[in-house]
Amino acid sequence: MAENTTLTYDRPSTGRGSRGIGLLKGPVRSVWLLHRRALLLFGAYLVLSAGSLVWLRFIAPGEELGPCGSLGSDLPPCGPPPLDSMFDFAGNLGAVAFAIAWLPLAVAFYAGAVLVGAELERGTAGLSWTQSVTPGRWLAAKLAVPAVLLLSGVTVLSLLYRWVRGAGAKALGDQWYFTDVFLALGPAVLAYCLFALAVGALAGLLVRRALPAGGLAFVVTAIVMLFADGRRDRLWPTADVVWRNSRGELPNSALQMENGLVVAGKRVERCWDPQVAMPPGCHSGSGIREWYAVFHPSSHFWPIQLVETGIVLALAAAATFAAFRVLRRLHA
Questions:
Q1: Helices (H) and strands (E) in the chain, counts
Q2: Are 192 and 222 a contacting pair, CB within 8 Å?
Q3: Position 5 in a domain
């Protein structure tokens, strides 16, 4: 009786564990191989920015550099740091804040032009889909790898920026409500990075050409960021204060929204300084004057940050959902 020499092969397991391993070794590895130059460029950006922040921390004016004394003593004179030192510190720290705050624009262009748009234009995405990688896993890996790198890297930069800013606060002329400072200090910039990534992927799937997709993602992200910047002060209820018979002053850290005089029980914004000529209607019959101001104190930083972060994360989730829906229709 002849032996049965038929060879049999075990089919690879299709359980959840093997799918997870395949996702790690397949699409994620493909993202690294195809986009390693961009990922290395982002790594260089992180190293340069972090190194600049650490350097600024150790040259921050206003630190305790040793004992000081009055004129005529043997100790160095006490007083504010030199103007050139303050300018160098504030200017360089402002440049780093700008690089952190507006990173989402670069992310949007990269995601639209390179991450998704270029692969669809060249046809490499379709080739991947004919292999063992499904379109859904392909897009998930395209979004997951940059998202993890962005979240971890920008978090480190934001914490470093907060550390450096706290060390040299006396030498700074900007405040928490300045656009670059506000974004660099909190989690809102992380939400904008995720939003930019999702918008870039969606633009790439819709346009399917590299440069137009990148430009569209850049413009949409810029519009959203500028729109939010112009309406940020409306995200949380303001505080107000009234001074009687003597005009007070708000601290420099307060974001002033409105000010004026209380005339006949009504707030008139045009009426402010009684020492200058004021429009008709600013003078009351009595000699009692009340000044008012509407503002956001520095304690409103975190409420505004968290509200804006939540809104942008919701937009990012909507853009991600839309990207998967468009991908499904393309592959149908």
A1: 12, 4
A2: no
A3: no
Residue 70 lies in a domain: no
What residues make up the domain containing 46? 22-61+83-235+300-331
Q: Match 């005089």 to its residue by tokens.
A: 261
The number of beta carbons lying within 10 Å of the beta carbon of residue 233 is 15
Neighbour-count burial for 48-72, b at 16+ CB within 10 Å, e otherwise = ebbebbeebbeebbbeeeeeeeeee
Per the DSSP assignment, residues forming a β-bridge with 69 are 77
How many independent structural domains does the chain possess? 2
12, containing H or E segment: none
Give 226-265 pLDDT, tens digit per residue: 999 999 999 999 999 988 877 778 888 999 998 888 877 7
* Cβ(313)–Cβ(192) below 8 Å: no
Structure tokens at 106: 């670069």
The residue type found at 100 is I
Report if pTM > 0.85. no
Q: Can you give the length of the chain in residues?
A: 332
Task: Let me know: does 291 contact 259? Beta carbons within 8 Å.
Answer: yes
Quote the distance between the C-alpha of residue 163 and its chain's center. 17
Residues 6 or more apart whose CB falls under 8 angstroms from that of 264 comprise 284
Angstrom distance (rounded) from CA 167 to CA 61: 8
Per-residue tokens: 63: 């630190």
| Dist. CA 268–CA 260, nearest whole Å | 6
Q: Which residues 6+ apart lie within 8 Å of 133 measured at CB?
A: 26, 27, 30
The DSSP call for residue 81 is P
